[in-house]
Every structure is written in structure tokens, then in C-alpha cells.
User: What shape does this take?
Amino acid sequence: MRHGGLPTLPVLTKIERPKLGIASWTLPWAIGVHGYPSPQRPLGCIGLLEKAVEAKVSVVQIADNLPLHELPDQELDQLREAATTRGLVLEAGTRSLDPEHLARYIAITHRIGARILRTVLSGSLFGPKQLAAAEAAILKVLPALERQGVTLALENNEAFSALEFAGVITRIASPHVGICLDTANSLGRPETLQTVVEHLAEHAVVLHAKDYDIRRIDTRMGFSVVGTAAGDGRVDFNWVFAELRRRGRSGISVIVEHWPPFAGTIEESIRIEEEWLSRSVRFLRSKVSAVV
Assistant: This one.
């Protein structure tokens, strides 16, 4: 069914283990963050694949901080071959719901042999008109998603409430449109993880496993939200995986993402995120292995 029908995301008929992976937002300082010192040798797409091999994960999501549309076709083909020879599954990512931009990325996703295209909205002014426009944009590219065998994973963030994101997916009602469930992004709304999972877990096709801590500032008059390695913060990943499993979504990809702070120098920032990568993968692998 399509617009106006019931959601048709496939429910897994047997319990499957999640597929653990990393993303270009796992190691943002190694890639480069606008407005901060650049790494001496910025990490590129092939380098990210090598990081995945070292971490012994099976999925790599290349998102908007390594923009795939800037690569010529030859390099996209080389990326696909490099992933295949390393036994890695690719996912694509971008930041937009402009139909022309999405159509371009659907073609790129297909070209690199990926099945998932994650996208996220950015900006600060959102309301009913923007929600309707987002839904209309997805419907416009739905035929291309179906034709290319690509699933669009819309990532939750502060743009809309979890209920509003769920409403878009429910109304579109296509197995080619789902949610990239991020465990931290909706804090900016603010919404609790419980609310996000309650409304979005059944629609999830990707999990962004992102941990954080909430600390009082030194005056005790307020709080700060700071990123951590997975397992070192406030996210109850046991509960998250249990809820995904309960809703038949246990076999989705679990992508490590980080919010690492700038540590004074680019070298120290890269060192910290590398350490977080090891800790996060080790922690999440123990949770993934427990899914039976």
C-alpha cells in the first residue's frame, strides 16, 4: 500500500542478529570538521573501509561529511569494488529532502551497491508546512527508490517530534521508506529516548548507536550534553535492542556514531575518537552477540 495506507515495512519472521557497522560520523575529526584545524592526512572513503576492517565490523555508512556526490563515477565504482573485496556492506548518507538531490543520491546509492540511503533534515525553522513538504518530497522520489531497490532511512532529530516522523512513514506506507533511529538526536527537541523508541522502533531500518552523558555545569545552574563512547553514557542499549527485537527489527544495521568533543588539538581529538571507536565496537558487539 502507498500514501494513506498501513505501514508495510517487512517484519522479520525469525530473530536475526543486528549487523554492526561504523560511519563517517564515527570518526569526524579524522575526516575534518569545518571551522577547526584539519587533520594532516584526512580520512577518505577507502580509509574508512580500512577502519571497518580493523574493527571487524560488516557495514560502513558514508554520510554527508564525506559527500559522495563530489566523487566522479569512476571513484564510486572503485568504492563499490573496494567494499566488495573487503566483504563490507555499504550504506549511503546525505543531508537534504530536496527531491532533485535525493534522486541524485538514489542513483549514487544504487551505483555503489548500497541498499540504504540515510538522510536527515537540517535547519532550525520547522512546522506543519515543512513536514508536509518533507512528505511530498519523499513521495516524489518513491518511484526511483522502488526502481533502484533502495530504502530511504529518514533520521530523527529536533526538526520534528518522533510522532510526526512516525506519521510520515505511516502515511507513505512503503517498504522503501523507514527510519534511521538515532538514540541522541531528539534531545534537541527535547524528547526522551523512551518516546523516540516508542514511536519509531517499528519503522527502523537503521540504528545510529550514539551515547551521551548529561552533566551539570560548574555553577549548578543548568546542564550540558556531552558525547561518550557507547556504553559509557546514559543510553540503555539493552532496552533499545530489546524493543527493536520485540517489534521485529532485530536484523537492522547498528551504526556506531560519536559526538567527540574537540580536545584542544586535532591530533588529540583523533586519538580520542579512535579510542572511542574501539570501546564502542567492543561494547556493542557484546550486545549484538546477546541477540538470540
User: Anything to note?
Assistant: The radius of gyration is 18 Å.
